[in-house]
Design brief:
4% helix; globular; 55% strand
Length: 182
């Protein structure tokens, strides 16, 4: 009887074809979108359906951009991320569960500032293709929502009418493409 061992494949993010963003309601009437421009992610998997994937992600807080320099400086301050003391945001997966044909639930630990909490993210598999240079690529859309205050991003301001300036809920959206490593 032949012993078949599944080969573990490493996949590395392709930052040219990926984006990591967040969305926060401002004054409860409009949404501000922000991006992390410097990040790293990879995963390993030995199964074709990726159900055994181990995922790691790191974002450089100083690379945050909301297309407004004053707001970005505020986000990097101690009112929010405190980029000087906590320069990275990290995610390390615990489990990837199939939820449907091309959908998964990704469970893992998200660390912002010095707070780590287990979160669940929705993952949609976009497909696998070979690019014009012979590289195998795989794409996913990852979404979820966190409460920023649970991570020590506690800055608050209230309008004259008593409404919040910045929502506690933050939507996370990552459209990511990974390249298969030889």
């Amino acid at each position: 009887m032949e012993n078949v061992t599944e080969k573990t494949t490493k996949w590395v993010i392709d930052p040219m074809h990926s984006e990591v963003q967040f969305k926060v309601k401002h004054l409860v009437i409009s949404t501000v979108t922000g991006y992390f421009h410097k990040y790293d992610a990879n995963f390993t998997s030995s199964k074709e359906d990726f159900s055994d994937a181990k995922v790691t992600f790191t974002a450089d807080i100083s690379s945050i951009s909301t297309n407004n320099e004053q707001r970005d400086t505020h986000l990097k301050s101690d009112d929010f991320f405190n980029a000087e003391k906590h320069p990275k945001m990290t995610f390390v997966s615990k489990e990837l569960k199939k939820a449907g044909d091309d959908t998964y639930k990704l469970i893992g630990d998200l660390t912002i500032r010095d707070v780590t909490k287990t979160i669940e993210l929705d993952v949609e598999y976009g497909g696998t293709m070979v690019d014009p240079y012979g590289n195998t690529k795989v794409g996913f859309e990852v979404t979820g929502t966190i409460n920023r205050k649970e991570y020590g991003l506690r800055w608050d301001a209230v309008t004259e009418a008593g409404g919040a300036v910045v929502s506690d809920k933050v939507k996370l959206i990552a459209n990511v493409q990974f390249a298969k490593q030889a």
